[in-house]
Amino acid sequence: MEQPSILVRILHSIPHVNYTFCRVNDTFNPDSDVYLESLGILASIPAGLLILSLFGLLLYLLTRCCDRKPRKPSAQRCQSCSLVIITLMTCASIGLGLYGNDDFHNGLLQAFSSGKQVEGLVLSLKRQEFSYPPPKFVGVLS
Questions:
Q1: CA terminus-to-terminus distance, the chain
Q2: What is the pTM for the complete model shown?
Q3: φ, ψ (nearest 5 deg) of residue 17
Q4: What is the model's pLDDT at position 29?
Q5: Distance (Å, whole) CA 105 – CA 95
Q6: How many percent of the chain have pLDDT more than 70?
């Protein structure tokens, strides 16, 4: 059996919590409301980080809008470096998301093809079972 990738191991090591931040059972169970709630909370973390970064950008733009003083070149250099770092981090997170999406898609395709193989095997076994007549036993007491 193929070992899971490091990304899968990292994501599965994240603890599942409910809305009161109490740890819940993290065994895969899509029928459980508590499990689905914990997945919703995990999925909302990137949205919260996005809102926080947009709020920081809003504050920055508000301060730049009202500031009329000329800037030193060193301040612009620091600003440029921070923008480059944020851009690289954003590109890396998009790339990681695309990699995870592709990995998930390939796993689903493999699961579906395995399911079709199992279905074909079961159907061939059913055909073999019905193609042979049951054996006739010759009675000892005839």
A1: 56
A2: 0.43
A3: -130, 155
A4: 83
A5: 15
A6: 87
